[in-house]
């Protein structure tokens, strides 16, 4: 039974994606020790660099982070002084979020570490397999109806 379970886990996309995510999160934490950012927080900062000023819905659409998680991330980053959040002038129910100068500095300082993590994640795959992996992940995300976040992170 033990060998059968090990084999099932080793061929389970769900389990392997989870393990890959754990490894990537750990690498990111190790590379960005001083920044005190999670990969999702980094994705939010990177998304706001692209969008400049955005509603939380726009950030959800770009990053794929669920609404409740994003609301918590924004709250934490506002508290740390990395983001500003204010009510939208055009929709009183919505918030507009943007990077603060400190948030931009943290993003700029963290980008090289994020790139090193990206390189380390892919270094054991030939270039063609890297492209295949990204395409496969995009296909999974696309089929599930979730927005691809590769452009933001």
Q: Which CATH class applies here?
A: Mainly Alpha
**Termini separation:** 40 Å
Strand content: 5-15%
Write the CATH architecture name. Answer: Orthogonal Bundle
* Helix share, percent: 55-70%
Textual characterization of the structure:
The chain has 153 residues and is mostly helical. The protein has helices at residues 2-10, 13-31, 39-51, 56-63, 67-79, 101-122, 127-143, and strands at 53-55, 83-87, 95-99. The chain has a 3-stranded antiparallel beta sheet. Helix 3 packs across helix 6 (101-122). The model is unreliable at 147-153 (pLDDT under 50).
Could you provide a short overview of the structure?
This protein is mainly alpha-helical.
List the helices and strands and how they pair.
Layout: H1 2-10, H2 13-31, H3 39-51, E1 53-55, H4 56-63, H5 67-79, E2 83-87, E3 95-99, H6 101-122, H7 127-143
Antiparallel strand pairs: 1-3, 2-3
């Amino acid at each position: 039974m033990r060998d059968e379970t090990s084999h099932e886990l080793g061929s389970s996309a769900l389990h392997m994606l989870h393990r890959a995510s754990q490894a990537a999160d750990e690498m990111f934490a190790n590379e960005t020790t001083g920044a005190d950012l999670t990969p999702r927080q980094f994705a939010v900062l990177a998304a706001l660099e692209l969008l400049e000023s955005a509603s939380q819905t726009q950030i959800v659409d770009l990053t794929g982070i669920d609404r409740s998680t994003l609301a918590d991330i924004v709250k934490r980053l506002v508290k740390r002084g990395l983001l500003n959040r204010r009510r939208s002038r055009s929709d009183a129910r919505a918030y507009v979020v943007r990077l603060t100068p400190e948030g931009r500095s943290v993003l700029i300082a963290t980008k090289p570490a994020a790139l090193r993590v990206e390189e380390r994640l892919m270094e054991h795959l030939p270039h063609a397999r890297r492209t295949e992996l990204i395409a496969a992940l995009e296909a999974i995300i696309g089929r599930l109806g979730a927005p691809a976040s590769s452009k933001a992170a």
